Amino acid sequence: MRRAGLFGVPRVRPWSWQAFLLGLVVVATSAVLQGICVALGAKLYFAAFLPGLFVLALVAGVPLAALAALVTVPLVWWAFMPPFFEFNSLTSANADSINLFCLLAVLVIGLADLCRATIAMVSRGGLKHPGESAALNPQ
To answer: How far apart are CA 41 and CA 44, in angstroms?
Structure first.
């Protein structure tokens, strides 16, 4: 892993084995947190997975976060939507939850990609025209 230069955010090459291992760890951790939330009575099926997707997209890139989002849908359908640990036909409310998660996942992953690009831009010195120094004021 190498550091991005801003806030000490580690970065992982997007298609490396470390990235896939990180994706597996993030999805598993989110599933454990979601299980705790369900045990406490929460009905928000995908709530714990969205922050994990943001962190995963920020650290490992968009492809891995998209793959994690695709893995999350059948995992939540199987483990957290009643009846538990069975694949049954979806109710309209469950289908709406999956559609909303897909929309939010696209938005969160896009936001993380913009943050990742901004971190890379700031670590290179920001936006400057060639031959112009940020320290000099042209006025």
So the answer is: 9
CA distance 99 to 62: 19
Instruction: Please report, in tens digits, the pLDDT of each residue of the chain (139 residues total).
Output: 554 444 566 778 888 888 999 999 999 999 999 999 989 988 889 999 999 999 999 999 999 999 999 999 999 999 998 888 999 999 999 999 999 999 999 999 999 999 988 888 887 777 766 665 555 555 5
Q: Which residue has the tokens 């490992």?
A: 60
Rounded distance between C-alpha atoms, residue 76 and residue 31, angstroms: 8
Which of 13, 54, 10, 12 has its CA nearest to residue 30? 54
Distance separating alpha carbons of residues 70 and 65, to the nearest angstrom = 9
